[in-house]
Design brief:
Blueprint: H1 12-16, H2 23-40, E1 48-50, H3 52-56, E2 71-74, H4 80-89, E3 93-94, E4 110-114, E5 120-124, H5 137-143, E6 145-149, E7 152-156, H6 159-172, H7 179-191, H8 196-205, H9 209-223, H10 229-235, H11 239-249, H12 256-260, H13 264-270, H14 273-276, H15 282-297
Parallel strand pairs: 2-5
Antiparallel strand pairs: 1-2, 3-4, 4-5, 6-7
């Protein structure tokens, strides 16, 4: 998540980051995780922690070196509504739908709640909006592995799934992310055992292999990620697509500061789905988004 502008109000978790130590953020996130698990586990809802907290306590030498703005939790789509209701009854409060998402929010891939101790929770049923990526979400949940956040047992994504999710998170954001997101990928490749053949297949099936290629390439060139040459060869774009994307995403010239200064609309145009590898899904995505809006309007 990009940092807020100077005029933007800070969320409670962002305000914690203005202090000298991230220790309160970690403590309160662990407390929030305990409360969430206490609400979900009695119903048999399998909840998997995504991104920051999981990474901090599995691949960083010092967990306090990794910070975040919220707690991301993935549940099965079939469990989503019940999970949301249980969190509300446990003292979490619903954050109103963002105006930009309008009537499609009810079917959006994640909803945000404010936690009882000030840490927001993003409850996920997918990793991107409107089924943008084709990923094995049931497998993500089934293959989840245990880890411990402080003193609290939890589940996180298995190494292959974790690496793919981190790559797709950057692709989804049109590469408008922070350096820590590339550092996360480098540390996963250094500290965890990745089944690269399975990862390659999953990246291709996600419909975004070329975006994944550039994420891995930048992570390797700038942050020392250990990526097998064969994996890069399999995922690399060819021809005109390679020439186009190399203009801005060539790891030798990649510049996060320049990307951060680029208007979002220009990033979307520059890295539009036809170039990242989703061209065959463009029309179905438009139809699905439009149908969701119609269903909201007529209350289906």
């Amino acid at each position: 998540m990009p940092p807020p502008s100077p005029a933007s109000p800070l969320s409670p978790s962002q305000a914690l980051l203005t202090g000298e130590s991230p220790r309160p953020l970690h403590f309160l996130t662990e407390q929030t995780l305990e409360l969430a698990q206490g609400a979900l586990q009695p119903a048999g809802i399998r909840a998997v922690v995504l991104k920051g907290p999981h990474l901090a306590y599995t691949v960083y030498d010092d967990p306090l070196d990794r910070v975040w703005c919220d707690l991301d939790i993935l549940v099965a789509s079939a469990d989503f509504d019940e999970a949301f209701g249980r969190l509300l009854r446990a003292g979490f409060s619903e954050v109103p739908a963002p105006p930009s998402r309008g009537r499609t929010y009810r079917r959006y891939y994640e909803w945000t709640l404010d936690g009882p101790v000030g840490i927001p929770v993003e409850l996920h049923r997918d990793i991107a909006a409107h089924g943008l990526f084709s990923v094995d979400l049931a497998g993500f949940l089934e293959r989840a592995v245990p880890f411990t956040m402080g003193h609290t047992p939890a589940l996180g994504l298995a190494p292959d799934d974790l690496l793919l999710m981190l790559c797709l998170h950057i692709v989804k954001g049109h590469f408008w992310v922070q350096a820590k997101h590339f550092r996360d990928i480098a540390l996963v490749t250094m500290r965890q055992e990745v089944d690269w053949r399975r990862f390659e297949r999953a990246a291709i099936e996600s419909n975004a292999p070329w975006g994944v290629y550039y994420v891995l390439s930048v992570s390797a060139r700038r942050y020392g990620a250990r990526i097998p040459a064969e994996a890069l060869r399999v995922l690399a774009p060819r021809g005109v697509r390679r020439l186009w994307l190399d203009r801005s995403l060539d790891p030798e010239r990649f510049d996060l500061a320049r990307i951060a200064a680029t208007p979002p609309w220009r990033l979307r145009l520059r890295y539009a789905s036809p170039w990242i590898g989703l061209y065959e899904k463009a029309l179905p995505l438009v139809v699905k988004y439009g149908w969701n809006r119609v269903r909201e309007i007529i209350h289906l």
